[in-house]
Amino acid sequence: CPCPLPRGDCSLSRLLRRLLSARRSLEICLFAFSSPQLGRAVQLLHRRGVRVRVVTDAQYMGLRGSQIGLLRRAGIQVRHDQEGGYMHHKFAIVDRRMLITGSLNWTTQAIQNNRENVLVMEDAEYVKPFLDEFERIWEEYNPINYTFF
Amino acid sequence: CPCPLPRGDCSLSRLLRRLLSARRSLEICLFAFSSPQLGRAVQLLHRRGVRVRVVTDAQYMGLRGSQIGLLRRAGIQVRHDQEGGYMHHKFAIVDRRMLITGSLNWTTQAIQNNRENVLVMEDAEYVKPFLDEFERIWEEYNPINYTFF
């Protein structure tokens, strides 16, 4: 399903369906995450026992409407960058076999009003480098590596 | 070559090499375009006779450092949205057969400092929907369709 995203509810329900198919693990690597529906879906997966890990951008996670605080309070592990540049990825990996990536940040604005694209791919050739990038970032953003000055 | 992007010159030269392989056509659909090196590459292709078409976001094209004005002055066709939402895509299509897409806007900030990904794909299955989306946007943003109020 490689597809530019139609706007609005249709694209949201397609994305929700993909996410809610997760049975074991969900890696999320998102510059901006403020969609309440997608936030609730991620919390539901966490409660079902799916191992959810979230990486996000430090500058954006505190903005009004961000879901990141809610996810943390629900007990989901979140890590963020500690750099000048943005953590600008917008991808998720379901059960280590399905990659969801594109231009879309998980915000209501983007889903409803923007021109966006989302690719869904299950070929290991595409999934593997994104999984590797996630693990690299996950370690790099481990709080034990923080530098204080 | 599906790959999260290493930062800096390496990723820029890889992207330049892909672009400069264009012989007939180049479609560019970019939220933000301010990299001088990538701007010069696009102008070079235009001078070589490659048919270059650019779609961009209205709110971002006028920002300081944007390449859009320079491209227009060089005689390259540019169209932009006339909407409230963002034209948030970040893709290019070389010779109607190679898709370059991901999280990367063509800005020096993104290339040098951000965590980004760029996918390069030649399967028609992936290229076709993006070509279709480009043609759809190209017609939709045709100035003859502007509404004034």
Automatic annotation (TrEMBL), chains A, B:
InterPro entries with a match to the protein in the record: PLD-like_dom, PLD_domain, PLipase_D/transphosphatidylase
Checking SUPFAM superfamilies in the record gives: Phospholipase D/nuclease (SSF56024)
GO biological process terms on file: lipid catabolic process; meiotic cell cycle; piRNA processing
Q: Coiled coil: which residue ranges? A: none
Q: Which domain of life does the protein's organism represent?
A: Eukaryota
GO MF annotation terms? RNA endonuclease activity producing 5'-phosphomonoesters, hydrolytic mechanism
Q: Which reaction does it catalyse?
A: a cardiolipin + H2O = a 1,2-diacyl-sn-glycero-3-phospho-(1'-sn-glycerol) + a 1,2-diacyl-sn-glycero-3-phosphate + H(+)
Q: Name one Pfam family in it.
A: PLDc_2
Question: What residues does the PLD phosphodiesterase domain cover?
Answer: 83-110
The alphabetized UniProt keywords are: Hydrolase, Lipid degradation, Lipid metabolism, Meiosis
Query: GO cellular-component terms in the record?
Result: mitochondrion
The entry assigns this protein to a family as follows: Belongs to the phospholipase D family. MitoPLD/Zucchini subfamily.
This chain belongs to the protein called Mitochondrial cardiolipin hydrolase
Q: What is the species of this protein?
A: Oceanites oceanicus
Q: Which gene encodes it?
A: Pld6
